[in-house]
Design the sequence.
């Protein structure tokens, strides 16, 4: 569960929040007590973001912004960037949700499944590969981008489209980082990289001492 407080639905008075909660959870259900959304997520993103009215508003405005029909960027390219950002940042929530968005845009399942290993897949055209490479630069290299990536992007995207791609992919890198940090939705998972205990009877001191002894014999 979230590492910070979730706001009970009974405490929500903001009209924007009420509309979203009605849409996602019906007129009465509190996701704290009865988790679940139509896409299978618990729904605690909404209860945590309800801590701040203006941050909640800013976030949902961002959702509307990237879906705005005035956007020039191809929605499939946009979603490729968002999905890859989720994977690179290690957010199962962002990755999983935007896999669904890609599917909704008609992208085949094998192409979606190949996003984690796009660099060795032949399912993507040059345009898509450039977008995925740029998403890696944004989400995995903190924006450090080789000139060759921009040179390739500029062969098929306008400056405005590149700017939209940059903004939206970076926005979802932020969401990926936040959901992991706060352990929201599908990112409420234990840390997978931990020490594995040695078998009973193992002595680290004996191991190190033996290794030093072996090295002294070699010298």
Sequence:
């Amino acid at each position: 569960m979230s590492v910070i407080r979730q706001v009970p639905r009974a405490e929500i008075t903001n009209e924007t929040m009420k509309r979203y909660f009605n849409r996602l959870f019906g007129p009465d259900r509190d996701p704290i007590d009865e988790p679940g959304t139509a896409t299978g997520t618990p729904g605690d993103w909404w209860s945590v973001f309800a801590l701040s009215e203006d941050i909640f508003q800013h976030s949902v405005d961002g959702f509307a912004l990237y879906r705005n029909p005035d956007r020039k960027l191809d929605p499939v390219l946009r979603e490729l960037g968002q999905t890859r950002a989720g994977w690179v940042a290690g957010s199962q929530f962002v990755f999983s949700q935007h896999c669904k968005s890609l599917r909704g845009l008609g992208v085949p399942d094998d192409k979606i499944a190949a996003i984690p290993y796009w660099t060795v897949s032949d399912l993507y055209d040059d345009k898509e590969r450039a977008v995925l490479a740029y998403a890696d630069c944004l989400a995995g290299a903190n924006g450090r981008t080789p000139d060759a990536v921009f040179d390739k992007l500029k062969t098929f995207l306008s400056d405005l489209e590149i700017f939209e791609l940059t903004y939206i992919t970076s926005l979802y890198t932020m969401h990926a980082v936040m959901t992991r940090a706060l352990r929201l939705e599908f990112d409420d998972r234990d840390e997978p990289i931990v020490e594995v205990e040695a078998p009973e009877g193992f002595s680290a001191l004996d191991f190190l001492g033996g290794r030093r002894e072996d090295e002294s014999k070699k010298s």
Remarks:
- The chain has two domains: 1-70, 73-189.
- The chain has a mean pLDDT of 94.
- The two ends are 55 Å apart (CA to CA).
- Residues 1-70 form one domain.
